[in-house]
Amino acid sequence: MKDKKICTPNNAFCISEKKIILAVFAAIAIIAIGVSYFAIIEKTSSDYNSGAIKILLQSVDKFTISIALIVGLVIVSISVLAFRKNQSAKFLLITLAFGILVLEWALKLIDRYYIPGQLLYDPIENLLELTVLVFIAWGLFRK
What we know:
By secondary structure, the chain is mainly α. It has helices spanning 17-43, 52-86, 89-113, 122-141, and strands at 5-7, 14-16. Helices cover 75% and strands 4% of the residues.
């Protein structure tokens, strides 16, 4: 399968879709690492509860959870289609893993903004994430 390229109108500059996706993920990782670093530094300061990074993260939390939920639903849909096409146990395990991840994000959104503290306790969240990791590993290493 040939990699698609995106070019400027006069073909002076072209870049592959894979490189664009890689650049986007790299940018997200760099931003996440930077924000995490500044959040840790800010957390050790005396004015942690009113810090700019904490306020910024809290203001975009609902948005990021919603985006993660939407992306997860898209990935689950793709996984279901792949499973229907191949009927492979690997695809079933991956579909289950992403389904549980979407369930976790939905519970997280409901727990934080609609009925706070009632659905998703840390042990439940940890168990869901461990289950996702087990299903992904099992799907990847299954023959």
